[in-house]
Design brief:
transmembrane, 5-stranded antiparallel beta sheet, 3-stranded antiparallel beta sheet
């Protein structure tokens, strides 16, 4: 065995050894079992806040509904007020009280929730649906910070700890890249080039580090397991009340902190669903632009031809549709029955396959259109090859091909396709002409900014003009600068393609309470 082979086998052995040690560490640090206590309505002396209870109730894996539970706890303590004007819980509103405007002694995550609510309810209150964020990144960042702060509070109370000790996790991380070092030396000695050596050196370590990162998290302390058992008893007591799960948020005035703990423990399904601190419903966004809060429905024209297209692109699409219509028309008129292709049969005779001719004309017309439109790719060629496979045109199973090939003049389907592509070409030409008109000017507030597949594809920008409860998203070119949700802008648009030609900032986005000044915490 050569030295190069020894290095490769040594690296493989180290990977196996690392996986064994990693497995043993996982087994040794798995979370203990929670023994539910008897059903009880007591919180106990110095009870943990609902945000921390959400971590204990989820077996230290997450803090689902922690923000909603914290908001209800703040309401039970008189810092915020929840009102339900009618019989519909979704129309409840949240208001900041005088006590909440100067609330001392809050934990960082409680302060985070209060600041978010205060930012949305600054002008006399806001619908509970307005608490949700308007974009995914901000919602994810806010909730990640909330989780870190709740975990820090749980550690401070002695209820949670790192799953792996810092020394163990550091040692596993460093050792994960040792096999790659052996692979790199072996690759260099084997004359595989610098790129190959770097790849075989980094790839194993990156994969092992990914496994390690997925395993890092929290696990219970003995005290944490004991307190989790107590809260499991409270969950059992709350679950015994059949109507508790459907209590609205405003019922906190009756149930006090029980509603907050029930939400943290996953008992109150309705309240947890209505009080969302996530990215919200992308098709229904609450807006106060214009003076009053109201829900604005958003339509996204994903299937609209020419949406966000420039004049040059529209002319290109018009030419492509015209080419398809012209090619189909010429093929349908010139086609003759004797064009069928004759091939050798198994018995020595010949077999005519008219379906091959038809498909060649149809597929060829489509390919010409894709080439003109600039949409041709290797996958297009692969699909065309599948469409032209001889097995698709066996006369025994597709007898209609013979009848179609013998038909005099264009087929009904060909006529329909010619008319459709001709209309599409006319439509794109009309849009290109409309693009030459002076753009319209619109002023409003940015509700949402949604990305689409592809780096060069225009993004959706939903704008609230303040005079309607229904809006259709505009196309913001990919090269345009990012616009913060909540900003008031003046845009110049082309109505035909709904393309934004220019954007002028009228007023920057108001703070949404997604950032608070809190002590720096170690990442879990």
């Amino acid at each position: 065995m050569t030295l190069t082979e020894q290095l490769y086998w040594g690296g493989a052995g180290l990977i196996a050894l690392w996986l064994v040690v990693f497995g043993l560490a996982l087994a040794a640090t798995r979370n203990g079992a929670v023994t539910p206590g008897p059903a009880t309505q007591e919180f106990g002396t110095d009870p943990e806040p609902p945000g921390v209870v959400s971590l204990l109730g989820n077996n230290w894996r997450g803090v689902e509904h922690a923000a909603a539970a914290t908001l209800l706890d703040l309401a039970a303590r008189g810092l915020v007020e929840l009102r339900q004007p009618g019989d519909e819980p979704a129309r409840s509103t949240v208001h900041l009280t005088e006590a909440g405007r100067a609330a001392p002694g809050l934990t960082p995550y409680e302060q985070r929730v209060l600041v978010r609510v205060a930012a949305r309810a600054a002008n006399g209150g806001a619908p509970i649906g307005a608490i949700a964020f308007r974009d995914d990144e901000r919602a994810a960042s806010w909730n990640t910070a909330l989780r870190r702060e709740i975990i820090a509070e749980a550690r401070l109370r002695g209820l949670s700890r790192y799953r792996f000790a810092p020394l163990l996790s550091s040692a596993l991380l460093v050792c994960a890249f040792v096999p790659g070092a052996l692979f790199t030396v072996a690759a260099i000695m084997g004359h595989h080039g610098v790129r190959g050596a770097i790849f075989v050196g980094v790839a194993p370590g990156a994969a092992l580090a990914f496994l390690l990162g997925k395993a890092l998290g929290e696990r219970a302390t003995p005290k944490g397991l004991e307190r989790a058992g107590h809260w499991a008893g409270l969950r059992a007591w709350l679950t015994a009340h059949e109507d508790f799960a459907q209590l609205p948020p405003a019922s906190v005035t009756v149930w006090d902190r029980y509603l907050a703990y029930g939400t943290a423990l996953g008992v109150t399904s309705l309240t947890g669903r209505l009080l969302g601190f996530d990215s919200g419903d992308r098709r229904r966004v609450w807006s106060s632009y214009g003076g009053t809060w109201r829900p604005v429905r958003i339509r996204y024209p994903r299937l609209r031809p020419g949406f966000g297209g420039s004049t040059g692109r529209l002319l290109q699409f018009a030419a492509a549709a015209g080419v398809v219509a012209g090619a189909l028309c010429a093929f349908a008129i010139l086609r003759q029955p004797d064009w069928a292709v004759a091939v050798d049969a198994h018995d020595g005779g010949s077999l005519r396959r008219p379906g091959l001719v038809l498909s060649a004309g149809w597929v060829g017309s489509a390919l010409l259109g894709l080439v003109v439109a600039g949409k041709f790719s290797r996958w297009t060629l692969f699909v065309a090859f599948l469409a032209m496979m001889p097995g698709n045109f066996a006369s025994g199973s597709h007898g209609w091909f013979r009848d179609a090939a013998a038909h005099e003049g264009p087929l009904f389907g060909e006529l329909a396709a010619i008319v459709a592509f001709g209309a599409l070409a006319t439509y794109f030409l009309a849009l290109a002409c409309l693009e030459r008109r002076e753009p319209y000017t619109i002023t409003g507030e940015v509700l949402r900014l949604e990305s689409r597949k592809g780096k060069e594809v225009a993004r959706f920008l939903a704008l609230d003009e303040g005079n309607t409860d229904l809006t259709t998203a505009w196309a913001l070119p990919a090269a345009s600068q990012d616009i913060a949700t909540g900003a008031q802008v003046r845009i110049r648009v082309s109505r035909g393609t709904r393309t934004i030609r220019s954007v002028e900032l009228v007023r920057a986005a108001m703070p949404e309470g997604d950032r608070v000044k809190a002590p720096k915490q170690d990442a879990p």
